[in-house]
Specification:
CATH superfamily: Mannitol-specific EII, Chain A
Order of helices and strands: EHHEEEEEHHHH
Helix content: 40-55%
Largest sheet: 6 strands, mixed
Number of helices: 6
CATH topology: Mannitol-specific EII, Chain A
Shape: globular
Radius of gyration: 14 Å
Number of domains: 1
Low-confidence stretches: none
Number of strands: 6
CATH architecture: 3-Layer(aba) Sandwich
Length: 155
């Protein structure tokens, strides 16, 4: 699974102004509600419930909040670059400034896991995280995440 399959140029928030984990999850829910037509409250509760099982803060300033939800037919993503790092209860206790939010259909087993794996691999690429942190341009962030070839096809 490629990130271009779950992320479009409209799914980039280049300068998210949030000051807490709760605000980040609420902003993500609001944005994903616009895209899916599902109530923001439902998406927010899904993300919060997942966080109660253990933080999705992976470390090194990166979080991947995710959840499964009824009413969507494919895996959807939202990438957020925060204006300021926030506490996210990450495993390394480092504040988070990059978040890749993922929603999957209720019954999506393998696709959900493939998407999480792809996100984790992408965000481990040498130098990519620094490039993501150094730009506030949504188009550049999208191209960095999906690769120039996929970004060109999406345009």
């Amino acid at each position: 699974m490629e990130l271009g399959q779950i992320l479009s140029q409209d799914d980039i928030v280049p300068c998210a102004k949030v000051s807490s984990k709760r605000q980040l999850l609420q902003l993500a829910a609001d944005k994903l509600a616009e895209k899916t037509g599902i109530e923001a409250h439902t998406i927010f509760e899904t993300l919060v419930e997942r966080e109660k099982c253990g933080s999705t803060g992976l470390g090194s300033g990166i979080a991947v909040p995710h959840g499964k939800i009824k009413g969507i037919d494919r895996v959807l993503g939202l990438f957020m670059r925060l204006d300021r790092a926030i506490d996210f209860d990450a495993i390394d206790e480092a504040p988070v400034d990059l978040a890749f939010v993922l929603l999957a259909p209720q019954g999506a087993g393998a696709d959900h896991l493939k998407a999480l794996s792809r996100i984790a691999r992408t965000l481990r690429e040498e130098g990519l995280v620094e490039k993501l942190r150094s730009t506030r341009d949504a188009d550049k962030l999208f191209a960095l995440l999906v690769g120039p070839e996929q970004a060109h096809h999406a345009a």
